[in-house]
Each structure stands twice: as C-alpha cells, then as structure tokens.
Amino acid sequence: MIQFIGLVGGALVILSALFGVTSALLYGSRFPWWEHPDGRHLFAYQVVIGSVLGLWAGRLIVTGQLTDSGVGPWPWIRLAAFGAIAWVLGWRLLIITRAWREQRRERIKEDPDDGDHLP
Questions:
Q1: How high is the pLDDT of residue 73?
Q2: Minimal CA–CA distance to 92: which of 55, 51, 45?
Q3: Dist. CA 109–CA 119, nearest whole Å
Q4: pLDDT confidence of 29, banded at 50, 70, 90?
C-alpha cells in the first residue's frame, strides 16, 4: 500500500511539473506579460515554479525514486501536498487557457479579417 501511495505521489509531482511548465510557456507566449510589472512578476513566478517542479520530477525519474517517498507519514504528506499543488496549477492552466481564448475572441470581433492569423 505504501509503495502505491509513493507511486501516486510521484505521479502527482510529475503532473504538477507538467502543469507548471505548461502554464509558464502558455502565459509567456500568449500574453504581453512584459508590458506591466504585475505581468513580469507573474511570468517570473510561473517560470520559477515550473523550473523547480520540473527539476524535482526529472530527479525522481532519472534516479528511479519515483515510488520512494520515505518512511513514516512522508508518503502521505507528499500525496496530499502534491495533490493540492497539481489541483491549483491545473486550475491556473485552465484560467490561462480561458483568458487566451477570450482575448482571441475579442481580437476577432475587433478585426474579423485578422482572426486567421492569430497564434
């Protein structure tokens, strides 16, 4: 049972990393984050979170420690913590995706001829 909990916790670390990196990439490539201090901060924050989680997930995979989350309560703590992190980063990814779609719809309304050339 503990090995299964360790595997699910490891999978949640990887899922969190995927969500974190994808959020940073989408926000960085689809929004003018450089135009405002809040946008620069948000982009930097997302890059740091995605990078840290990506490094952690890569280490788990490369070293074969995907299911090894320690002894005692640590497997359960990792499961709960990364379940919450994956949930929140998935939520952020959904928000970014919706905002990008809304921004795209607004651009198409403003200039219908330019809608086919949007990224």
A1: 86
A2: 45
A3: 16
A4: very high
103-104-109-113 Cα dihedral, nearest 10 degrees: 150
User: Are 93 and 19 within 8 A, CB to CB?
Assistant: yes
User: How is residue 78 written in tokens?
Assistant: 């990792």
Asked if 82 and 12 touch (Cβ cutoff 8 Å), the reply is yes
Which residue type, as a one-letter code, is found at position 50?
Answer: G
Per-residue pLDDT tens over the stretch 67-119: 776 778 888 998 999 999 999 999 999 999 999 999 888 888 877 665 555 55
Q: Tally Cβ neighbours within 10 Å of residue 69.
A: 23
CA pair distance 75, 6, nearest whole angstrom? 5
Q: What is the 3-state secondary structure (H, E, C) of the chain?
A: CHHHHHHHHHHHHHHHHHHHHHHHHHHHHHCCHHHCHHHHHHHHHHHHHHHHHHHHHHHHHHCCCCCCCCCCCHHHHHHHHHHHHHHHHHHHHHHHHHHHHHHHHHHHHHCHHHHHHCC
